Amino acid sequence: MLSPGDWHHWLFGFLPFWTAWDAGILLQFFIAGLGMIILLKSRGIPIPYVLLGAVSFSFYSQFIMWIYDRWLGGIIWAPLIVWSLLEGRRKNKWVHLPSILFIALGFRGGHLQACLFVFLLVLCVFLADWWKRADRWSWKVFLKSSSFYLISGFLAALLSLDVFVDTLPRMEGCKSLPFVWGLENIPFLATSVMPTLFGIPQTISISKVIGADLFDIKFGGGVVFVLAVLALFNRRAPLTAKFCFLVSLIVSCTPLSTFLYSRSTVVMAFGMSWLAGWQLFDLRRHPVLPIWRRLAWWGIGILCIWLAVSVAVQCFHEPLLLKLHSFIDGNITTSQQKYRHSWYLLRSERLLDQLMIWDWRNALLILLVSVGGWACSRLNISSRYPKWWAGLVVLCTFGEQIVFSSSWIAYSDKPESGYLYKEPEWMSEFRGHVGDGAVIIVNPHNDLDFLCTNHLSTYGIRLASGYETVQPRYLRPLSDGHYYPKDYAMAGISHLLCDAKAGRPSFDGWNLVQETEDFFLLENPLYRGRYFVRTQGEKNHFSPVVPDWRTNNKIHVTVPPGTKELSVLESYSRGWSARTGKGEELPLSSTERYSILVSVPDSEQQTEILLQYHTPYREWYYSMMGGTALFLLVAALLQRRVNIRTEKEG
């Protein structure tokens, strides 16, 4: 994932790969949970009740779903961001070092979307702070209320300039996204209590019917969601938590959900977990609520309806299955009908079985929610053993999270190779064919289940293109999609990888070199390498050369006497520079295909050329980051001296 500032990347610099990988996952949950404990403890909530918020937030559904991609490495700092902001406001600080550092860590979660989540979180804290003021509609009050948050956010952004400078230019080729209303997320809120109602990853998804997706599930625990909703109507509940819960929930039901995606609901999860922990603690101090009896009767009524529907479905299983198959046949594309038909039918059969009330996941979730709800009522009604009842609620919530994650997380043995995945038997031959070339996947039926688009890169295979929502310009053939060998060779593409389900490929000029039951590998006979030189007597003829050495950011090439131009089949960027062995800077430009072209001065001897990539503008943004860090250090030292002097005078 494109996460240049993510803290967990640093683990790979001094730990073995798998140790760093596992530590990154464990620390993600640890930081999120510890932050919730610190925040709720600072609000005067005892430990047994604090644990409910910690379990709910750290194991929220979006953290579980995206555990593999580490998309949420920034928002795990949410509790500590809010804790530091509240402390800064309480102390009436203008520059509060913890607030700035934790917001910066949130920004350094790695990508622009994570930065938007942090911005949304800080906005909610500010809105709650501003709303508490009696004269809130005054412009002076508004500016005074917002100044602390603006200063903290601005200085945190300066400390994270490397993240923004690395990612913002890549928005140049951002794919256009559909404009949706997001209203489909309203009925999908039922999954906040029962996450299996619309299907699981092992079945087809009913959510597709309403335009939603299983990735839209907002599950932090059924009991937690009920407690959070109760807290919304409690005037004593923390206003900041209410704003986080409601604002993020409302955003997910608007067109903004297209761009923030379901991951933005982690802000809602933070507010929900805070409200649940607070409400659980408040139950023992609150008069007996009449809501428990109503909730019990509502729950019994819903379960009776679910049981009746399950019995009816079981009685008419075959006719319903045939209708479901007919519906699928009428709504899938021709290619899906041809290549994925049995896959859809199998998952539709699983769906009917999984939706039954007696399915083990549903039955266990119902049991855990019922026991957790009963424990909440006992905590409210009885004054005996409050911590034991609170502990039972926490255990039930943790059990709900385990049941939910069982259908989303698959465990496997670590591969013997040094790669992230187990290396297939055919990979050794495949790698031998490709060498330093690049592969492009020919997938006319858009069947991403086959060797997912970015999959081969984990084995050290260069891909000519990949899947990214934010995609900058890159080296590509002019006849993209026509597969002309000469044009593709000039774009550095040496092989085509074709899905075997589409039949034996027939592309003129390409040679079949490897065949398995899953794919065909075609070789480009015109591919001669990635580095070429043009000498002084040649007009349009480039001869291949072999680089002396290369790394991800450096390429060293020795060119023969009389060389006029060096062509490098790598994607051009303003960050590339070229110098001779004597330190002379060489002109570097982009070709029509967006490759690199270096102009070489006349020389009767061999010339050593070093191409090196530096992130554009890094000198000035490193200077600004260093200046900001120095300013904060001086401010902290001065503040400490002022505090010491004040204590002595006091």
Structure explained in plain terms:
By secondary structure, the protein is an alpha+beta fold. The chain has 4 domains: 7-405, no CATH class; 427-523, no CATH class; 531-613, Sandwich (Immunoglobulin-like), CATH 2.60.40; 617-650. 48% of the residues lie in helices and 10% in strands. The protein is built from 21 helices and 14 strands. The protein has helices at 17-42, 47-58, 61-65, 78-90, 97-107, 112-131, 139-159, 161-167, 222-232, 239-251, 257-260, 266-283, 291-315, 317-331, 334-339, 341-354, 360-381, 386-405, 427-434, 485-490, 618-649, and strands at 438-442, 493-499, 511-515, 519-523, 531-535, 543-544, 549-550, 554-559, 563-568, 576-580, 585-586, 588-590, 596-599, 607-613. The protein has a 5-stranded antiparallel sheet with strand order 6-5-9-13-12, with no helix packed on it. It has a 5-stranded antiparallel sheet with strand order 7-8-14-10-11, with no helix packed on it. The protein has a 4-stranded mixed sheet with strand order 1-2-4-3. Helix 2 packs antiparallel against helix 12, helix 5 crosses helix 7 and helix 9 crosses helix 12 (266-283). The longest helix has 32 residues, at 618-649. The chain is flat and about 95 Å long. It starts with 16 loop residues before the first helix and ends with a helix. The model has no long low-confidence stretch (mean pLDDT 84).
